[in-house]
Design goal:
- It is a single chain.
- By secondary structure, the chain is an alpha/beta fold.
- The strands form 2 sheets. Strands 3-2-1-4-5-6-7 form a 7-stranded parallel sheet, sandwiched between helices. Strands 10-9-8-11-12-13 form a 6-stranded parallel sheet, with helices on both faces.
- The longest helix is centred in the first third of the chain and has 15 residues.
Length: 395
């Protein structure tokens, strides 16, 4: 719901009005058209083919093409879909996008209908009463309390189903989000179909570092960001001589995936890449988080949802909670950040160094909190996409 914090550009109201009007009128001629059902799928604001939405899209394309034509909605400023890697790709904001929305039998979005499926949807949602809308989430909820923007209200009300990874998430969305029980479905998350559960590495040689974003940093100037606790803490890890030497002497590779919102500050991070110490930054435009999760043996993070994937795989995690008090006051978490974490907790850079040293010395390559996995995840059978398709689409 906080995706509105991302600047998507200002859609020309007149152009949108003309496209929507023409698409709505034309869609009336397709009302009784025969053929496969139509499903629109989107996630990551159309900028990447990742996470739950993309996995579910692939599943529909590969398994139910005769029953359902599944379209992927992509941001036209990107090139990943146009390069031919994504089947049935449609540009967000195009006339075809609006026409398909009025014709669609189903939509599935990972963040917001407004940014993943059809721009400006909140302005004309009342014109579409037939499409079954499902929110499949970006990741398991828990670390961030929901932020409901003004435009989210009609979208949440209009959404027919909210998919849940587990009973835990079902109860969270029911009690904290106040979603009616009849809209909540527990079918598991498509993203977990990508790999087998409980796959700890033999040794810890590759670390993925991912830090998420804080909305109160979004409007900071460059100078203010460079003075922020967020930047100083992140940089502090990469500059720490003990950590660097630990990586080098043990042949450990550190792969860093910056949050997309940090793109405008990347020039301040990239100089810290150092091949001699095994420190590397992933490319914003071509990195695959799915591949990074599979290839890396451990996660170093704050509160990113990727941590659930590492728990699912029984891979170790260090949670770097450098701003816990500030985060709790400004955003808040549904999890108790002192009791509910499923990995090692470090509050300072020095804590991270000591924890890493302990893990290396004791050859810890599994998640000691793996027993907590079934508290948050109900299914480990790789049938999450199948359940979701059956429950919503009856296919």
């Amino acid at each position: 719901m906080s995706v509105t914090l991302k600047e998507k550009g200002r859609w020309d109201p007149l152009k949108v009005f003309l496209k929507v009007s023409a698409a709505y009128i034309l869609s009336r001629f397709y009302r009784n058209a025969k053929g496969p059902k139509i499903a629109l799928v989107g996630g990551n604001l159309g900028e990447k083919y990742e996470d739950n939405a993309s996995v579910f899209h692939k599943y529909l394309v590969n398994n139910h093409a005769k029953q359902v034509t599944a379209y992927w909605m992509y941001d036209p400023s990107t090139d990943y879909a146009k390069n031919g890697r994504v089947p049935n790709a449609v540009a967000l904001g195009s006339f075809r996008n609006y026409l398909l929305f009025f014709r669609a039998d189903y939509t599935f979005h990972g963040h917001s209908l407004l940014y993943d499926i059809v721009p400006s949807a909140d302005k004309f949602l009342n014109l579409n009463r037939r499409t079954v809308i499902t929110h499949v989430s970006h990741g398991i909820e828990g670390f961030k309390k929901i932020l409901i923007q003004k435009e989210d209200v009609p979208l949440l009300k209009r959404t027919d189903y909210f998919n849940c990874a587990s009973r835990y998430e079902y109860e969270l969305k029911r009690d904290k989000w106040k979603i009616p029980e009849e809209k909540l479905i527990i079918t598991g998350f498509p993203r977990f179909d990508r790999y087998l559960p409980n796959q700890p590495p033999k040794e810890m040689k590759r670390i993925l570092m991912m830090m998420t974003w804080r909305e109160w940093l979004f409007d900071l100037s460059r100078e203010e960001f460079l003075e922020s606790n967020y930047f100083r803490s992140t940089i502090g890890l990469l500059k720490h001589e003990g950590i660097r030497e630990l990586l080098k002497s043990n042949g450990i590779h550190l792969q860093i995936a910056l949050h997309p919102f940090m793109k405008r500050f990347e020039e301040h991070f990239f100089p810290l890449a150092d091949q001699d110490y095994g420190i590397e930054f992933l490319d914003f435009n071509h990195a695959s988080i799915e591949r990074s999760i599979e290839e890396n043996d451990m996660l170093l993070t704050d509160i990113t949802s990727v941590s659930w994937d590492f728990l699912y795989l029984n891979k170790p995690i260090i949670f770097f909670m450098f701003d816990q008090q500030e985060y709790t006051e400004k955003r808040g978490s549904y999890l108790d950040l002192d009791k509910d974490l499923y990995g090692y907790k470090s509050s300072t850079v020095e804590d991270v160094f000591n924890t890493l040293s302990y893990m290396v010395e004791n050859n810890i390559a599994h998640n000691e909190w793996y027993g907590k996995a079934d508290e948050y995840i109900d299914y480990f059978d790789q049938d999450n996409c199948k359940r979701l398709a059956q429950r919503v689409m009856n296919v």
